[in-house]
Amino acid sequence: MVQFVILLITHLAQLVTAADRHKIVYKSLQEANKECSLYNVPGGCLPRCVTQITRDWNDTVGMSPVYGRFFQPDPNDPCSNNRTERCIESKSSLIPPKKTCLRASESVQCFMDHYGEINMTAPQFVRFTKLQDVQLIFECAAMLGYSSKEQLDALLRDSEFKRQETRCVFRCVMIRSGLYSDSEGLNMPRYYVLCGGYEDGFYQQAAECSARLRKEVPCDDKCTLAQRMANECIGVDYETSIMQSKGNTVNTIYAIQGSEVYNIDGQNANSNVALTSVQRDKTINIENTNSDLNKFGDTINVDNQP
């Protein structure tokens, strides 16, 4: 199943048209290598730089399994994925967490040794960062006529998509990020990258869900159809958008004050909280655990709880 998905992603990457581009980014490993060379990255840290550009490496969680989209797996080798995972787990257990460059390099080597033949020249889809997601929301809201603080605040608070305006902004974000089109529906190969891979059978499950919704939702309600496809066909198992909350989990909350955007990422109660204040001339980052976070004027206070 994994090999089939990788082959499908590689094939579709070559079929992207100019009309489908919008904000979509495709990069090859060759392009990422050239980009890193411009930054004078030390040789031992080059694999980490490259896989950060392709959004596959994270110093905390390690290598994403969808890094395999840059490889051509052998369809007759069903064990390549398991061997790669075992190799990465073995290497990670021996390398201290602070040696991030070495951990990234060894993870790349595991893919090269066990997963398949590397393809340096084929561009592949690169998922957006959360900051880019925020920009897409603001751009879509502005294009649809929602640009005041009150309108934006109402949109961002509508995590259950009760308002048609929110559903239409969400549809715009999905289209501009290359995850959806009215004619084709959900772009599953790109969602595969966004979600970090799927369980076996997920494609069929999503296809059946999409077909059901096309019958249930009136054909002239494009915004509701797009939003429900993302939430019900993918969001039930995977996070699909910063505008979505699932269960008692709040993925991302954005509060707008003048020229400042406050981004709070949390998982659930008593979990790590990260706050980023993006302003014209500075960025403030705070990470905290089991705390209440309050902002007063230009000062950010973190009150620790016992």
Automatic annotation (TrEMBL):
GO terms for biological process: sensory perception of smell. Gene3D superfamilies: Pheromone/general odorant binding protein domain (1.10.238.20). InterPro entries: PBP/GOBP, PBP_GOBP_sf. Pfam families: PBP_GOBP. The keyword Signal applies. SUPFAM superfamilies: Insect pheromone/odorant-binding proteins. One of its GO terms (cellular component) is extracellular space. It is found in: Secreted. It comes from the Eukaryota. One of its GO terms (molecular function) is odorant binding. Keywords: Disulfide bond, Secreted, Signal. Belongs to the PBP/GOBP family. This is Uncharacterized protein. It comes from Aedes aegypti (Yellowfever mosquito). The lineage of its organism: Eukaryota, Metazoa, Ecdysozoa, Arthropoda, Hexapoda.
